């Protein structure tokens, strides 16, 4: 449903009534066999027209979580708990849960169980970390491909790639993406920040799932890259 | 090579679909219950947290124990002690035996209602919860015993300061919910609603629905539903209109549309569904009242921005909750049926094309969309002339391919109006194989008279 752009401006505008066009009815309108007459409709409380809305109301009443001792102003919304083993995140909206699932659980490496924000990054990870052929080929040719989807550049070493990401795609200088995990336990990285579409470079704006989430070595955040920063209600920590 | 491998390594996304499936099952059960008129919404404010429950009595209580708890709650020396007594009582009231013992006690309900006027929020809340447990009783005698509490509740609710804000918004929300339950009782139109309308409560309710920084979503939702049940009863809607219900609800609609437009908030789905639904219903039913014409202009709903707001909400419903589209279109029908001004707004704001885009949603939606377009077309040539350019005729021909007789019937009504008021409509209809589209319905009993009449007009003018 495409709304005209002027509509939003009208909503924000001054109150007012439209000057009506002249009304000229023909007596033949609505005569037999036709029966249309413009009329306002009233519905009683039990009318079947209200069924859908009433069902939504009852679902709301059943889902409401009243938190008296806590914050009384917390919006009353159903909660969705992530069912993936070991993850116990709770979300207020289905959309948030879906975003969380796609970001953290959809692109998961079956070898080391790491999650990635996009299929492109999962492919790159599998290639670089779990393919024995990769190391052999990397000695002879440029194999480290750029992490930005759509960029075709390849590099001899991961350090060269990092330099390219920082200079060409404006990634932060202390961005880390290819350090192996030191232990089997969960990583405890610093705050996560999401690089904007502009910072990712390329002409096409990547979709939400394609935006590369990056972590920083230090707890202090570096200056933001140019462009807008997208933040989310939950923190997703991902590294290649 | 790698894409093939990648697909094999990815787990299947099943969590979301399962959630949706569970919700659909619940919806189906609720629909069945509603049709059998057995749908009672239970919204229990229980918090069965074992840590909190420690030290609290949760057994069947006798009259002596109930009396002791009530006495403690009223005259206890410490607030904590008073609250603890009420919590124990409330837990006991979960048992039918305790409920029976409670209602046998003289003045027990009155004592509870008296505690609602306490200046301690937690005492208020526990008293409300005790009433809540009683009102949910399966036993009719217990539910009936709660009825005398209605007038006390109203007195309490109405007796607040002009701000009408309880020390604890949760209390106000719970009371709004309790009132909404009472207003649905069979006796409500005769016994309850007249006393509600006779009190200052309607003005307070409308105050709680005033857009602005003080608007609390949870509270507004409950009192908007209260208003819906009052309006449906048709006891005295003229009173609500003179209190400015139309303008307040209209402004709230603008506010909701503004919120939908401004933010991608997670709680917004709730705003869209839970507050918009009763607000749309209240406005739609109030517009049918004769009293609308009698009140001053500032009390009426004439602001063109209402149409803009409604379309923004329709777009939101289409994305988030399509089941609410008919309710929005019902309001659009009631706005355009008798108002050349609102019809003109739809034309001047270029809203006919977005409206026609809803024709594919469902039969109910299609009928309502076509009805709104008929409301505009029946106002005469000036309106049809503005309607005609664009996708109207192709959309109409598409609806003639529908099998639903109501949708097709409404399309035929619209065609008649266009043939009557729009020069060139017949010619364009013939050029776009309109007669073949009509032929499909020649044998349908409810449609054939109108089909023949249109065929005749198209062929012979």
TrEMBL record, chain A:
PROSITE patterns: ZINC_FINGER_C2H2_1. Residues 1-29 are annotated as: Disordered. It comes from the Eukaryota. It comes from Camelus ferus. InterPro entries: ZNF511, Znf_C2H2_type. Residues 82-105, 109-130, 146-169 form the C2H2-type domain. Signal peptide: none annotated. This is Zinc finger protein 511 isoform X3. The lineage of its organism: Eukaryota, Metazoa, Chordata, Craniata, Vertebrata. The gene is ZNF511.
Automatic annotation (TrEMBL), chain B:
Keywords: Membrane, Transmembrane. It comes from the Eukaryota. SUPFAM superfamilies: ARM repeat (SSF48371). PANTHER family: TRANSMEMBRANE AND COILED-COIL DOMAIN-CONTAINING PROTEIN 6 (PTHR16356:SF1), TRANSMEMBRANE AND COILED-COIL DOMAIN-CONTAINING PROTEIN 6 TMCO6 (PTHR16356). This is Transmembrane and coiled-coil domain-containing protein 6 isoform X3. The gene is TMCO6.
